[in-house]
Amino acid sequence: MTEKELNALLNDMSLEEKINQMVQLPGQIYASSAAVTGNIENNDVNHTIFYQAGSTLGIYGAEQLKKIQKEYMAKQPHHIPLLFMLDVIHGYETAFPCPLGLGASFDPESVKMCAEIAAKEAAVGGVHVTFSPMADLVRDARWGRVMESTGEDPYLNGKMAAAMVEGFQGNTRAEKGTVSSCIKHFAAYGAATAGLDYTNVELSEHTLREYYLGAYEKGIHAGCDMVMTSFNTWNGIPSTGNPWLMKQILRNEMGFDGVLISDWGAVGEMVNHGFCEDRKEAAEKALRAGVDIDMCSDCYADYLADLVREGVVEEKVIDEAVMRILKLKNKLGLFENPYRDADEEKEKTVLLCEEHRQFARKMVQKSVVLLKNERMEEGCLLPLDPTKKIAFIGPYIEGEDMRSSWVVTGSASNTISIRQAAKEVFFENQIRFAKGCTLLNNDTVLNGAQYHSDSWMEDNMRLEKEARQAAAWADIVVLCLGEHNHQSGEASSRTSITIPDIQQKLIASIYEVNQKIVTVLFNGRPLELDTVEAYSGAIVEAWMPGTEGGHGILDILTGACTPSAKLTMSFPYTVGQEPMSYNSYSSGRPKQTEGRADFTTRYLDCSNDPRYPFGYGLSYTRFSITEPELNQTRMGFNDQIIAQVRVKNVGERKGTEVIQLYIQDIAASCVRPVRELKGFCRVELEAGEERTVTFTITEPMLRFHCPDGSYKSESGRFRLWIGNSSVDGNAKEFWLEKGNRMTE
Ligand code: GLC
Fold first, then answer.
1. Which of 27, 321, 589, 654 has a 20 to 30 Å separation from 715 between CA atoms?
2. How far, in Å, from the CA of 59 to the mean position of ligand 1?
3. Does any ligand 1 atom lie closer than 6 A to the CB of residue 153?
4. Cis omega before residue 579 (within 30°)?
5. How far is the CA of 34 from the centre of ligand 1 (A)?
């Protein structure tokens, strides 16, 4: 439709019909198979306006959605099509590694490909919009939703958010196999106090701007069609009712002109926050903040018409919101083809096709982080010696869902297990399998239910005995352990970030009979690893690896592929160190590396540092990185510095290293992080091969949000490192001088 036709349509709509376009109803109203991703019990499922609501969420499948659309449009007064939205977070039918793993690839181009594949599959399934990427910066492993993020760094998160938006949306939404992208959760949900969902965020505006807003902005500048508000308050104001965030920052400063949707129930929940007297005031405050669509709270449906008729809000505001929604439907081509790409026949060939599976397998290879691989008397345990007898032990050798709790489509039965993948690689007489223990401790509460078994103790005694026998028989043990996939994700905050006690007991028991242990971890957050560390000669972080988890992990364990991934979130020694991040500030008395440590910034009972830092990950080969060479050490504002290192593969096998550039602004008008990631690149080298890696440093890279409200760089002294983690690299200093190019 043309803009003129859209305006004519809007003018022909009644006030109620316009308001209903701003209402999103849970998919359960249209189909019992809908994914439940919110408090559905709060919704009136006998909704009278189901054939007028502008959008719904949580349902998918070509045949089902085409049927619903047809019935809906026959009743919709102006035959305006229904918008189908879904959480396609890291894959549709083909599930990729969870985003915390995808980010560890440090490969935005590959992550973009994941989004492209997810869009292709979702589009043939009839989906129009995905609620992804989640671009929240995260620092607190107690928060279950760190699993959905790409970690603690603004620069990396920005690269990944933009890549996912571009992958989902393609160049135009008219392209087949694309969906609209809704970036979330605006804003700063990742700073949730104490790692708890739905509560408060207390941040200075400076910190909000310096760390938390950048990735959303990169996604918006990549063209995302929608933004979702976050459940949290920011400095006492719920995001969903905050005009400063949603108009000044999002619309005016970032230039977002698309559709703003609330999170599930977030409009109505402003009453619980104590920000609104009742749901009517919540509707008013959300509208004034610029929220176009009320997801599943019914406040807009119940009160907006009264608010207009009472003269509290202007119908013009409603019109502006509805026009943004109609434009989104128009951009998706729904007025011309309300079924868009939904195609039952194509579903049979596109979903989980071999090409998609192979790419998912590659992404597992690129997301698995090798944390430890110590040299033992016969050398390192990894890659596995193909002549050895191997016992695969632990609850994750089969069956347990390796996809995250945010894969709402498809089936775990399509996932390649460790057992299945191992049997494809090793001779039958070479391997044994034993579950070893249950995944969870007895009486664990999960998903609102209590996991209890009367025979839990006996079962685990039997399982442990079988596992010890397998371990005694084997040369090497591969332990496959971790969190339940619903122990991370939404409403999955934890005060203890260890693997379940029953699994820790198993490690110690297995160690008694075999000390050659490789531990593979399945988890959606950084973990405390004291026990794992104590008994494992090698540790592999596999996250929630998705559909091709078994294949990708065995490719790494056998050395068919060399690990290259790097942590995007710090792993603490203990949860007591949380929240933590590498890009923190110094202190007036930084911890001393030698000499007296009293009266300095330190814990009495723990290191200040993470066990494993941001940017860290091992390989099966080794790389040497020379000191950075700078073409000059002074630059003007219109100048640049070329920084180079020589990287050499000094090991015996091909490998890929992620070379990382960090910069520190040593003294400025406000304190600045001890290091900030400013660039990275993956370098694949054959054994013995070497290459020059070049980074160009420009003045815009040095800008920051200054106390006076400006965003600019300040002349002065800087330090840079180029290395393979946030704690690596030799420092070199350079100066940014006022004026243009400087001569030495
Ligand atoms: C949930 C989540 C959000 C998701 C939405 C729709 O509560 O917070 O990330 O996209 O509801 O499922």
1. 589
2. 14
3. no
4. yes
5. 14
Q: Which residues contact residue 483 at a Cβ distance below 8 angstroms, ignoring those fewer than 6 apart?
A: 499, 500, 522, 523, 524, 525, 527
Alpha-carbon distance of 534 to 192, in angstroms, equals 32
- Give the span between the Cα atoms of 302 and 457, in whole angstroms: 52
* CATH number at 3-347: 3.20.20.300
In three-state secondary structure terms, 456 is: helix
**pLDDT at residue 740 in the model:** 65
Q: At what angle do helices 299-309 and 315-331 cross, to 10 degrees?
A: 140
pLDDT digit string, tens, across residues 180-199: 999 999 999 999 999 999 99
| β-strand pairing of 476-482 with 390-393 | parallel
> Which tokens sit at 490?
């939404």
What predicted TM-score, i.e. pTM, was given to this entire model?
A: 0.97
Phi, psi values for residue 38, rounded to 5°: -165, -175
Half-sphere exposure at residue 133, Cβ-oriented, CA atoms within 13 angstroms: 40
Give ranges for CATH 3.20.20.300 in the chain. Answer: 3-347
CB of residue 168 inside a 6 A radius of ligand 1: no
Q: Is the CB of 57 under 6 A from ligand 1?
A: yes
Record: fold of 623-736: Immunoglobulin-like (2.60.40)
Ligand 1 binding pocket mutation candidate from 83, 87, 262 (most atoms within 8 A of CB) = 87
For the record, the structure tokens of 97 come out as 């590694």
Any atom of ligand 1 within 6 Å of the Cβ of 180: no
Q: Is the pLDDT assigned to residue 592 strictly greater than 80?
A: no
Taking residues 407-433, what's their average pLDDT?
A: 95
Measured from the Cβ of residue 646, the count of other Cβ atoms closer than 10 Å reads: 13
Residue-wise pLDDT tens digits, 375-414:
988 899 999 999 999 999 999 998 779 999 999 898 899 9
Question: Closest ligand 1 atom to the C-alpha of 185?
Answer: 9
CATH, domain 353-577, list 1.10.10.10, 2.160.10.10, 3.40.50.1700, 3.20.20.70: 3.40.50.1700
CA of 644 to the centre of ligand 1 (A): 44
pLDDT-derived band at 738 (thresholds 50, 70, 90) equals confident
What is the C-alpha to C-alpha distance for residues 279 and 260, in angstroms, rounded to an integer?
19
